[in-house]
Amino acid sequence: MKIAVLGGDGYCGWATALYLSAKGHSVVIVDSFVRRQWDHELGAQTLTPIRPLSERINLWRELTGNNIEAFVGDVTDYEFLASAIQEIEPEAVIHFAEQRSAPYSMIDRRHAVFTQVNNVVGTLNLLFAIREIVPDCHLIKLGTMGEYGTPNIDIEEGYISIEHNGRKDRLPYPKQPGSFYHLSKVHDSYNMMFACKVWGLRATELNQGVVYGTMTDEASMDEALINRFDYDEIFGTVLNRLCVQAIIGHPLTIIDSADATARATATLVAEHFPNLTTTDKPTTTFYATDSIEKFQRLGSNFLGQPVAEVNLIDLGG
Amino acid sequence: MKIAVLGGDGYCGWATALYLSAKGHSVVIVDSFVRRQWDHELGAQTLTPIRPLSERINLWRELTGNNIEAFVGDVTDYEFLASAIQEIEPEAVIHFAEQRSAPYSMIDRRHAVFTQVNNVVGTLNLLFAIREIVPDCHLIKLGTMGEYGTPNIDIEEGYISIEHNGRKDRLPYPKQPGSFYHLSKVHDSYNMMFACKVWGLRATELNQGVVYGTMTDEASMDEALINRFDYDEIFGTVLNRLCVQAIIGHPLTIIDSADATARATATLVAEHFPNLTTTDKPTTTFYATDSIEKFQRLGSNFLGQPVAEVNLIDLGG
């Protein structure tokens, strides 16, 4: 199958492109390299030095005989995107080409506006390009579990049946996004839902949770194929940060409030550092970005000891 | 009270500014005149020739002694907006400064993208400006009933209590917008809901239905204060179009599918043209933009006769 991977130089995109290429699909990467640019902006970098895309693609061809094409440009530039889609004629498009960091979107007004314009316009452009050029193409789009927030009812995928005042309907599941980034994904979801309804496009949205780790079967074939490992406070997932902190002996900073993350980190740390017991007490400083009470509850679950003092960080703007 | 009316040169904005000024409030209009520009783009114009804002404001002062200030600029330009808010120090902001035509947003990709960027960025800028400069200011924002679509359950304002699999929560009411314009309003709603939640802003959203008519008590004081009357197919409401068509003897074109509109039009026509009976049969051509079946049902309600042939118009892009 001819598959375009938008954002294929990024973390999820690169692993996906290699995986699909290894399966025998004809893969084309579309990327503007803006993710590499954000590293420069933030003075951060991936712990695993990633090679330029052209080198990675050449090596992949040498190792496997599989060719991955690359189109360099920005999906918010419709002229570029349309000509790329025209030339590629994809049967499926996997769309990772968005600004994907909640903290980045919350830095200030400029970053909030950039994130929403970048993500919404890129996806709108893609919807129009598919409609115009390859209407039968299947769109696979990355959303996020964070679109749903943390409702007190089971989360249903896409739609939910609601009975209200004696009548019933199946309606879009209510969203409660928690950052300007998460909001941009909700905007995308609504735009896609509309495009599918009025134009009959085919789209699948993946509202995935946290993705972590560096290795896949394909990326492990050669060190030069290695994927990103971000551990900074803007693009790094908290799991990566905690692992790095544990390894270099830095006091662990718990900055996330999700039960699942706390559990996963505890498992990882126990596995890799069996000698790290509660008698090796580190100095800890706690920062929470939402409820202090919730943080204390989750933090004490994770550490197995009470968490007394917590500093509240206002993520707003 | 010091009130800023963003989009105060437009249809709802002008009537609102005069009304509040007459009530003794200190009113400031913020407008970029882009609405007048769209008339040039579309080769359309208001049936009622509206005067330049400066003339209208001067006349209002002569007639009432009330001063309305004006700031000319675009709310998507944060530097302008922030300096205006800084200078005005409003206690309330009424935000009409958006592209408000669904058909305009559906002309093509460029108009869809423009509408969403214009509306979303303007509202984001305003939220940040209020937070930075006048955090106690009350924001009143125009949404639209069209955010809700036509669900088969009662529409609740803002939130709905949902019981699902034995648990309960009060969640944002599901939205089903029907154009790229309506989508932009849904995006705004989510952004506002978030800003209120994390920053404690105060905002009221008016999801109003069709607004029509030209005269208010204030606008009636002098012909030079008259408001817009749009009857073109992009910015004119269908009520205005039907009234104009009836008056000039042009065959009525029913292009709207809303029961309420059909009923209101029938009432208006009956009132103003008591001699217009079903024996004065016009030549009619029917165009529907969604379901032909629904159009036939509503159209026959309105006309009191079967509607046989209906042409489907694809509004998409």
Sequence-ordered SSE layout with sheet pairings:
The structure is a homodimer of 317-residue chains.
Chain A: E1 2-6, H1 11-22, E2 26-31, H2 34-42, H3 53-64, E3 68-72, H4 78-88, E4 92-95, H5 102-105, H6 109-133, E5 138-142, E6 159-164, E7 167-172, H7 180-199, E8 202-206, H8 238-248, H9 259-272, E9 287-288, H10 292-303, E10 311-312
Helix pairs in contact in A: 4-6, 6-7, 8-9, 9-10
How would you sum up this structure, described in words?
Two copies of one chain form a homodimer. Chain A starts with a strand and ends in a 5-residue tail after the last strand. The first copy, chain A, is 41% helix and 15% strand. In chain A, 40% of the residues are buried. Chain A has two domains: 2-229, NAD(P)-binding Rossmann-like Domain (Rossmann fold, 3-Layer(aba) Sandwich); 259-312, no CATH class. In chain A, α4 (78-88) runs parallel beside α6 (109-133), α6 (109-133) runs parallel beside α7 and α8 (238-248) runs parallel beside α9 (259-272). Chain A has ten helices and ten strands. By secondary structure, the first copy, chain A, is of the alpha/beta class. At the A-B interface, α6, β6, β7 and α7 of A face α6, β6, β7 and α7 of B.
